[in-house]
TrEMBL record:
Domain (ABC transporter): residue spans on this chain: 21-270
Any one of the GO CC terms: plasma membrane
Keyword annotations of the record: ATP-binding, Cell membrane, Membrane, Nucleotide-binding, Transport
Domain of life: Bacteria
Similarity comment: Belongs to the ABC transporter superfamily.
Molecular function per GO: ATP binding; ATP hydrolysis activity
Protein name: Peptide/nickel transport system ATP-binding protein
Keyword Cell division part of the UniProt annotation: no
Claim: Cytoplasm is one of the keywords in the record: no
Example GO biological process: peptide transport
């Protein structure tokens, strides 16, 4: 347990330093013309250093809103309660400047559409090198070399040529792997990937999941892999949490949730297994 609520940058006060993300009783309510919409209802979960947690659930079950609340990316009209600690630092209630520092230093977020994270006017090498230069005291040349190295690590063929290309010159799967390379350059403690493979062909999905695996190995980061498709997380996570109607209804090992689901709902998701 923490002893103080501290909203300052870099504040850490947790005893169990092995827990990198600790979400407790998180709720999100949107106001709408039809009255309040409770999108997230008392969600709690913990992720340990280096662990991979899958969050699965049907569309609209609150997976994205949960992580957007943690990342401080919800519109101001959303009412958020509860707690989310990243390396012991409370992130719910931080102001924009404070939470953007947490996003840059501690959490990397990967979205379904890689173009939301990439800048169309800069080469991919430039964008990876920029991330390297914010975290390491290296020369521009060394940062570029590191960019090529990271492109190689996420499985991009001919990284020394690709490094000078622009996002539009790459396929969707390659772009997503570039986003993962940028996440690696930021050396995060937690990577939250929200439906990172949903827009991609099955063969390409595997490459992106392997790139996430490489990122986890390289940085030692914990991974929260969000998907509506249980089949996606099967070989790639240590534990699965199932969301339904804003609640986290089941958590367990992959085997437990896949083969001995407690809820008929989780059983229904098995339809998406390959
Ligand atoms: P999932 O990611 O599991 O598909 P979401 O977390 O995106 O689901 O959405 C959960 C619920 O919150 C849905 O009912 C959705 O319509 C609602 N919702 C999401 N974002 C907003 C928003 N910005 N304003 C109002 N309601 C929203
Ligand atoms: Mg979503």
């Amino acid at each position: 347990m923490t002893t103080t609520d501290n909203f300052n940058d870099g504040a850490t006060a947790t005893v169990d330093t092995d827990i990198v993300l600790d979400v407790q009783d998180l709720s999100v309510t949107f106001s709408s013309e039809d009255g309040p919409l409770k999108a997230v209802r008392g969600v709690s979960y913990r992720v340990r250093r280096g662990e991979a947690l899958g969050i699965v659930g049907e569309s609209g079950s609150g997976k994205s809103v949960t992580s957007m609340a943690i990342m401080g990316l919800l519109p101001k009209s959303a009412s958020v309660s509860g707690s989310a600690r990243v390396l012991g630092q409370e992130v719910i209630g931080l102001n924009d400047a404070q939470i953007s520092k947490v996003r840059g230093d501690k959490i990397a977020m990967i979205f379904q559409d890689p173009l939301t994270s990439l800048n169309p006017v800069y080469t991919i090498g430039y964008q990876i090198a920029e991330a390297v230069l914010t975290h390491r005291k290296v020369t521009k040349q060394e940062a570029r070399k590191r960019a090529v190295d990271l492109l190689d690590k996420v499985g991009i063929p001919h990284p020394d040529r690709r490094v000078d290309q622009y996002p539009h010159e790459l396929s969707g799967g390659m772009r997503q792997r570039v986003v993962i390379a940028i996440a690696m350059a930021n050396d995060p403690d937690v990577i939250i990937a929200d439906e990172p493979t949903t827009a991609l062909d099955v063969t390409v999905q595997a490459q992106v999941l392997e790139a996430l695996e490489a990122a986890r190995k390289e940085t030692g980061a914990a991974l929260v892999l969000i998907t509506h498709d249980l089949g996606v997380v099967a070989g790639h996570v240590d534990r699965v949490a199932v969301m339904y109607a804003g609640r986290l209804v089941e958590t367990g090992s992959v085997e437990d949730v896949f083969y001995r689901p407690r809820m008929p709902y989780a059983l229904g998701l098995l339809g998406s297994l390959p």
